[in-house]
Amino acid sequence: MGKQACYLAVDFGTSNVHVTLIDQQTAEAVAGANKKYRWYTPAADQIELDADEMWTASEEAVADAIRRGGTGISVAAMTFSFFGDNITPVDGNGNALYKMLPGFCGRSHREVETIDREIGADRYGDITGNTLTTLSSASKILWLRRNRPEIFAQAKAFYTNQQYVMHKLGFGDIQDRTMAARKLAYDVKEDKWSAPILDVCGMAEEQLGRDIVESQTVVGKVRHYGRVDLGGMVPVTIGCHDVSASLLAAGVKTDKIETLGVLMGTYEQIGYFSDKFITGCNDFGDSLIFSCCYNSPFKGKYTVMDAFPTAGAMLEWYCKNLLMNPKADIGEMIAKADLQKESRLFVLPYMENYHGAVVGMSLATTLDDIFAALLRSLAYQFIACIDYIKGTADGIFCNIHFGGGGSRSDKLIELRADLLNARVGRMRNIELPSLGSCILASLGNGWSKTVEEAQSQVRNGVLYFEPNDANGKRQRASYETYKKLSADYLRNH
After folding, report:
1. Predicted confidence (pLDDT) per residue in 106-157, tens digit
2. How far, in Å, are 17, 20, 23 from residue 55 at the CA level?
3. Strand, coil or helix: what is 442?
4. H/E segment holding residue 6
5. pLDDT tens across 26-39, in order?
6. Which tens digits make up the pLDDT trace of 447-469?
7. Where are the alpha helices (DSSP H) in 223-274?
8. Which residues contact 238 (CB under 8 A, 6 or more apart)?
9. Using the 8-state DSSP alphabet, how is residue 416 labeled?
């Protein structure tokens, strides 16, 4: 009897790397492993990660997943998904010179002002498809130039996490188009690095990388993942940005408007694929929605995305700083939370921009009350994203499909269905970035000829949730109060 052929999917999240062995025939998860890595906070507005720690964590997770898979499996292909908006300066040998600067690090406010002054926020948005904020890796590179000139001078390149991993595997500084676009110095319509942004930041094209390929590209074969023996020569698909991969796994079509995909994690991200560039990035307005339009895994198409930057991160913040228990079981806490209780307590979860607030507390307010209000506020932010993204599409979305770690809770999905007053679905396999990267591997290795065929082969069923009318009316009334409170607060702070 032959061995069970599996994809080895490696998904780099903002705080964990998830490695999953996925059966090539059934798309079922065979075995998996997670490894955490640290966030460093050298100053109040600074967050850093360590590229080498991420690599080591991925080695350990790959080793654990293969060990758990047992001797009866064989790795047919390795494939990847990556969180975007990050940069690591490296020397000529690809070694990190400084910590990784992620998009959610807010240190580059002055550099954003410089880019705004020299290029203009509207023009920047038209070039990159992105609102001009500290998410921009270009602004982080300019920060290094000004504040760590010795690092900037030594930097031969500025790698994304994708490039760092590809270099570790022996493939140089290669990157796919989605991750190049997420450096936010890329002209997404012209499909090249933006000369005006390069000039302002003092960068050269060579430092950002000229070897840009399609997301399904098989970049080569490896026998080892670092120190881990894979048991044979394995083809490596470069993969893409985690949101684009998630949309594929959520059943979002590349040829028509039909389904919205939702990835619930550190960010709550909502999106679809478009044949045209969507102008008019949201400027954070009254609800601090982050929206963008950037290159999809498929040439000539775009990923249109809305996101709320501190969704899952807010739950971790609550456990660490209010509950004083960073290891608390968030799933158990959600299960116990009373989300239907009448309450005048609201959380404005805008922590990334120093606008976070808890409003409506009394001497009787408990931590449980705050946690429930926080969960409701994240659902309200989701609805704000839905309201915005619907206005960017020519067609009508018939389905909304959820995945990601935050979607495990029936209660959170039901709350969103109630607020929408519409049926919503949760994918059977919620590890959307990993499953989406397998779809790309199927295409890249020639096991399927079209995106639709690959989605069919790497199938993912849907469990649907119906709205509760009474709960929905009460929650929608609360949402209207939240919107007014949020708008008034943001105008004055």
Report:
1. 899 999 999 999 999 999 999 999 988 888 999 999 999 999 999 999 999 9
2. 9, 16, 24
3. helix
4. strand 4-12
5. 999 999 999 999 98
6. 999 999 999 988 888 999 999 99
7. 242-249
8. 80, 162, 166, 174, 175, 176, 213, 215, 217, 218, 219
9. H
The half-sphere exposure of 463 on its side-chain side, counting CA atoms within 13 A, is 12
Q: What is the CA 192 to chain-centroid distance, rounded?
A: 23
C-alpha distances in Å from residue 404, one per residue of 160, 245, 489: 22, 12, 31
> Could you tell me if 194 and 187 are in contact, meaning their C-beta atoms sit under 8 angstroms apart?
yes
d(CA 184, CA 193): 9
**Rounded CA gap, 73 and 24, in Å?**
11
For 345-397, how does the pLDDT look when each residue is reduced to its tens digit (9 = 90+)? Answer: 999 988 766 788 999 999 999 999 999 999 999 999 999 889 888 888 888 89
- Identify the structural domains of the chain with CATH numbers, from first to last: 4-238 (3.30.420.40), 252-427+461-493 (3.30.420.40)
Asked if residues 359 and 386 have their Cβ atoms less than 8 Å apart, the reply is: no
CA distances 294 to 138, 259, 478, Å, are: 16, 18, 34
Taking a C-beta distance cutoff of 8 angstroms, is the pair 7, 79 a contact? yes
Residue 280 confidence (pLDDT) above 70: no
Dihedral sign, CA of 276, 280, 281, 285? negative
pTM for the model stands at 0.93
Q: Look at residues 121, 150, 161, 120 and name the one whose alpha carbon lies nearest to residue 11.
A: 161
Euclidean distance between CA atoms 459 and 397, whole angstroms: 21
Closest CA to 164 of 78, 100, 239, 212: 100
The total of other beta-carbon atoms located within 10 Å of residue 92's CB is 9
Cβ count within 10 A of residue 67: 12
